[in-house]
């Protein structure tokens, strides 16, 4: 097991954001983006109702500890007191020090670098405090915005599984799965490079 596990969630702060546990008080903010068809287009679930969002928040509040395979956290991304999205970190193999990262952001908050800022904080946590060796992202290859973010994070495309997922909203009822990933030493080198170049490397996501 990684020396960084178990780990109980603590809020993470970036220059502009706060990643924290969701609460029932976030319902309206979360519904504002999870209830949109354009947000759910490339997710594993359709747009959610108010009741479904409330259930999802309740589930998220119960997942705050990373210790064994299958454990996950889904922190809210808070900007100026408003939840504008959420992140996802899942331990898929403690033995092999492997994790999965994901993100969802309100369209109004896209294009300003927030997704990259939040993902960077989560990758710093994964490779730093948690001692992960490899972090992957699984996404719909039609999701150009997420692919662009993977590239900005220094992740590489490792696989594409063709029509491996039943998805009624996709053409023909099947969707592909793309796999992107980055290793701990690659992330460390990238972060060292970014710090050396300062704000010149802070590009919007």
From TrEMBL:
InterPro entries, A to Z: Acyl_CoA_acyltransferase, GNAT_dom, N-acetyltransferase
SUPFAM superfamilies noted in UniProt: Acyl-CoA N-acyltransferases (Nat)
Domain named N-acetyltransferase is located at: 17-186
One family name in Pfam for this protein: Acetyltransf_3
PANTHER family in UniProt: GNAT FAMILY, PUTATIVE (AFU_ORTHOLOGUE AFUA_3G00765)-RELATED-RELATED, N-ACETYLTRANSFERASE DOMAIN-CONTAINING PROTEIN
Q: What is this protein called?
A: N-acetyltransferase
């Amino acid at each position: 097991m990684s020396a960084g596990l178990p780990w109980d969630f603590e809020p993470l702060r970036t220059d502009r954001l706060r990643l924290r546990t969701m609460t029932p008080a976030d319902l309206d903010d979360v519904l504002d983006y999870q209830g949109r068809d354009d947000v759910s287009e490339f997710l594993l679930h359709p747009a959610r109702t108010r009741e479904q969002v409330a259930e999802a928040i309740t589930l998220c509040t119960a997942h705050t500890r990373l210790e064994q395979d299958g454990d996950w956290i889904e922190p809210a991304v808070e900007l100026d007191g408003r939840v504008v999205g959420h992140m996802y970190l899942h331990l898929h193999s403690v033995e092999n020090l492997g994790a999965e990262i994901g993100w969802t952001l309100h369209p109004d908050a896209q294009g300003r670098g927030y997704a990259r800022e939040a993902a960077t904080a989560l990758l710093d946590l994964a490779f730093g405090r948690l001692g992960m060796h490899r972090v992957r992202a699984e996404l719909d290859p039609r999701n150009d915005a997420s692919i662009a973010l993977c590239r900005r994070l220094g992740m590489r495309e490792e696989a594409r599984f063709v029509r491996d997922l039943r998805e009624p909203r996709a053409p023909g009822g099947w969707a592909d799965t793309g796999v992107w990933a980055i290793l701990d030493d690659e992330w460390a080198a990238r972060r060292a490079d970014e710090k050396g170049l300062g704000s010149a490397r802070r590009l919007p996501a």
